[in-house]
Design brief:
Structural class: alpha+beta
Helix content: 25-40%
Distance between the termini: 95 Å
Mean pLDDT: 85
Order of helices and strands: EEHEEHEHHHEHEEHEEEHHEHHHEEHEEH
Number of helices: 14
Radius of gyration: 26 Å
Shape: globular
Amino acid sequence: LLNFLPEFQAISNNPHSKFVYKWMVYNGNHSETLQDVIKPRGFARASTKQDDHLEDINFIWRPIQFSRRGYTTIDKVNADRDGKKHIVINHLENIKGICTKTGLVKSLRRYYKENLEAVVARYSAYDSTPTTFLLLPDCNDAEYTAFLQRFQEIEKGVFRKEKLPAKHCTDNMWLIKPDAENQGRGIEVFKNNLPDMKKFLTSKPPNTYWVVQKYLEEPLLYSGRKFDIRMWALMTFKGELFFYPHGYIRTSSDFYTLDSKLNYVHLTNNCLQKYGEKYGTFEEGNTIGFEQFDQYLKDAFPDYHLDLQTHFMPRIKDLMIDAFLSVKDELNPAKRKNCFEMVGFDFMIDEDFRVWLIEINTNPYLGVPNKYIEALLTKMLTDLFSIVLDPYVKPANPIPTPANQFELLYDERRKVNQRRSYGVPLYPIPSLAPIETKIPDPVPRKNDKKEEAVKKEKKKKKAPATQDSN
């Protein structure tokens, strides 16, 4: 019924266990990484086969979302269990509200407009993520008109409506991304070239959405190359949001220049970079850990005394909480128990050390490009399973581990909300924040002056006569 690919099953070998526990892991996205973490918990390999019968399955991990039919099947099995524990599954229904590119933008737009504190602080979606338009291939609606106007304004050096600092608009560069793809697939970079952008869009299938996003032209660089930050978060059926404080830096294979058309310069996804000729030239697997990055910050910017935990993590937490709250009430509409979602957040830092949210991925990459990532993934998944799996499927061989590193950011039931005020500066080094200058009103045209004079004359005629106060 669920069209399982060949999966790995395991049965608890705990002789004192009341139940025989089985788990299923779909193939894909380096499922062996998951298996290596689950097996030591006291499960022994049973078989590898095609199996649509879920009556005795306790845990399912699937790289992509379940179909509606799949959820129906799981619900039926749970209803027939007569008090036995529900199947633990690794997805929350409706996660697409933040894990597709259009979904994230729509959710953030709505959330900030409805959030009174954000409204008072004049905080919008494009204070969190770069300016974005959601376009259809026909290029013939209000959203395209808004994009066209913004593109032309930036081209003329007018930034009246643009949230991005002017330094990111010098070359008027834009990204076009497919809505539901990940791993850098289908992304194109355009430099002040509206005809090519329109030609690209109109060549796409009708009724498909495309994300047109302003490019951050002055990013912070690591040794002259672009990078982004991959962080993990956990969302549970209880409405909890957890944050994992250890992530990694993904680097580009080529030195940064706005003149290059190579995606290996502009995009840092490992799944794209690994096909480049220079992959691994500078860092094994094009990734480094936070400790190495902190050392780079100290060496490259000694005057600012920067470190990730102090200057960047608070903003990262704020953005994670906002994204979660933008869809919290829509997640898991069937109120299923024992379900969760592990997501990968991608962030960029600009040259003034401001953090920007780029996208959120369900099914984040579980490949092992080097020993550092191997150890990091093992610890992160071990901590994750201790939260989402162990309370419901007791491990036969509990593994003594240091304190769980997942940090609770939000839980309405326990009144936990680590979101800082919207009035907190967006720049961790205040002296680097761009100076806000009042943009003068446009100079009236000749006809405008005549109209203004006529209006003033009418006002004089309508004004009541005043009496002498004496």
